Input
Amino acid sequence: MNHLSELATLSLSTSSLPHPFVRLLTYGRAYRRRFWQATTCSILNKLFDLAPPLLIGVAVDVVVQQQDSWLTNFGLVSVRSQLLVIVLASLVIWSFESLFEYAYARLWRNLAQQIQHDLRLDAYAHIQELELEYFESNSTGRMMSILNDDINQLERFLDFGANEVLQVAATVVIIGAIFFYLTPGVAAMALLPMPFILWGAVTFQKWLAPRYADVREKASLLNSRLSNNLSGITTIKSFTTEAYEIERIRRESDAYSHSNQRAIALSAAFTPLIRILILLGFSATLFFGGLAAVNGTISVGNYSVLVYLVQRLLWPLTRLGETLDQYQRAMASTRRVMNLLNTPIAIHPGRTPLPTNTVQGDIWFRDVSFAYRDRAPVVEHLNLHIPEGKTTAIVGSTGSGKSTLVKLLLRLYEPQVGEISLDGIDIREVQLRDLRRSVGLVSQDVFLFHGTVWENITYGTPDATFREVVEAAKIAEAHEFIEQLPDGYDTIVGERGQKLSGGQRQRLAIARAVLKNPPILILDEATSAVDNETEAAIQHSLERITQNRTTVAIAHRLSTIRNAHCIYVMEEGKLVERGTHEQLVEQNGIYASLWRVQMGMRSDEQRDE
Output
């Protein structure tokens, strides 16, 4: 179920956005039927819940009036028959009350589960569509807080709070109607505190809203710190900064705690103040209702009904503070979730299909310029041709823009100027899934998912056969070490592949790309984490899989790309040299200088050995 289109028309300005509750209702249109079913059951439950005080009044009337009671109008003369009817009515009323309580509890909780499930999926799906810049500007902890804590907070309110609000409203309407029917004068006195209670609720809501918004923000910062520290636990241990990190967590946790305390200090004051107003209404009913009963204006039975009902009316309002607290927490969370869903998607997929089996792999960068936000340009007016079926290498110093070209080709970022084309088609016009399916990327920053070796190799190619997986692993020089693992291909690699060495993780990443069998292969420092012997073996295997395949190799180790058909040298976002390895060495430029340095270093390494 996808509700994102319903939110697309909402303004992105925080000041002009509708109230979070309105945005939640907009999102929840698909659940309208279940919402009304739950609402109906809540109101019917409250209707039957308020019936026993009426029966008590009728019973008192029977005991006092006997043959002159109200029930004699229905032909029930004896007191026994009247009391028997009241008992039977009580049985029916309590049965229906229990039935509708079960119904509304189940409906509201199931509705809460469904909304939180769909909302979490929609929010996560939207996050996946955002460009990389969003992830670089927002911490993982903050996003986790929204996807988990904030959505769970909304679920908790829908579980109990929504029903509480409905039942309080139904109680006010039903009892108010009964009061004005039985004795309008006393009803006015009993209901006199209601406007002040409602005014107090609205006022407290306005005061609480910014405090709970601050609570959710402090929770995000705490989650972000915890997530960051758990990811960097090796660094923390190696630098023996455990005490330092505990102190930083203590400060974040204290900030969250103090923020909560500020909200609690205000929300806790609501119930005691409401109790004072409730006391006024209850006292007025006792006093003026009692006088009316003594004067014969109302019957003793009706007076009993008034006393019971005013308690049923006013005392539930003491829980309004707790409900208001849940509501404000839920609205603070809803605002954060909806703001995430309203984050604009900068990179929109094209409409032109480009099936993988039709891709030739001819790539052009034409006058491309790109700069990360608030930074100097990384690529400036770059023109680059990567011919189909050839191996093109890109080298240069760190920060020269090599890896940025890969991100632009995959449309992880959009260039501010220029055009990138694949087989003569502007990649902005190509369906995004088709574009990325055509490219196999082996990055220097290898990411393995928590799971088995098999699951990581077949990631993106789940239908691969065992033979195909083993063949890909052999090409990546990974099969031998996989066989030596405790459970072979079923061995758990740990989070981010932490149970494997850097070289082993790199070889699994290569096997994953080989298994994908894309028409375009990008090797971004693909052998940076392996030793020289393994690198030589992988290079020999890569020579097979790069034949007649468009390959882009980005490397610091020039020995790994010396056989490329064409080598480009980048400096400060511009192409400064191009040619084959032999041509560039003869030019005696930047490439030749880098080659001499690396060959000198390798000679030194060999002498040391």
